[in-house]
Specification:
With about 180 residues, the protein is of the alpha+beta class. The protein has one domain (about 1-180): Beta Barrel (OB fold (Dihydrolipoamide Acetyltransferase, E2P)), CATH 2.40.50.120. About 20% of the residues lie in helices and about 45% in strands. It is globular. Mean pLDDT is about 90; it is low at about 1-20.
Length: about 180
């Protein structure tokens, strides 16, 4: 029974781990699609199967909540990881560091799992600048991207902005979405 489960997991990993094509999302689209946007520090990564997919579960100690329900701590899943001696990787999945500080654009599904919107597009590293301010940035994704309007394959570009500007943008877009309802 165990060998059949491992064989199934390997086949699923091969099928699911193939190159993915991501929909390129603008910053405003990330905000609109998110049920929650938080600034937090990540701890306690642990990988486990959820069906045929391995997810790494991260505990997020919330520093600031910019959108969504109040929480001091939450759990986020990222596809990929090592469980039961098997490794799964997913194109476009963010690479997170324990103890790292991030702004996360999150979406909680009906199954209760909280995912990062747009995979690596929805993770911004928070860093302190020598001048004393803080920045939020993400590198360009290496995964294939498609423009949702044209259907054309496009290159992703990294994003860097002041943390205060990102916070203000999340607030403005969230207000606009609430007023549009």
């Amino acid at each position: 029974m165990r060998s059949a489960r491992i064989t199934f997991a390997i086949l699923a990993a091969l099928r699911l781990g193939e190159s993915a094509t991501l929909e390129r999302l603008s910053l405003d689209e990330l905000i609109e699609k998110s049920t929650s946007v938080v600034r937090g520090r990540l701890y306690s990564p642990r990988a486990a199967f959820h069906g045929p997919v391995i997810y790494t579960r991260w505990t997020v100690q919330v520093i600031e909540r910019w959108k969504g329900p109040e929480a001091q701590q939450l759990e986020v899943v990222v596809p990929g990881g090592v469980a039961m001696g098997l490794r799964q990787t997913f194109s476009g999945a963010p690479r997170l560091q324990e103890g790292g500080e991030y702004v996360l654009f999150l979406w909680t599904g009906r199954n209760g799992l909280t995912h990062v919107v747009g995979l690596s597009q929805g993770v911004f590293v928070v860093s302190k600048e020598m001048a004393g301010g803080e920045t939020a940035w993400r590198a360009a994704s290496t995964a294939a991207m498609v423009d949702p309007k044209s259907g054309s394959v496009v290159a992703d570009a990294g994003v860097r902005l002041r943390l205060a500007d990102l916070r203000a943008r999340v607030a403005a877009v969230s207000r606009g979405a609430e007023q549009g309802r």
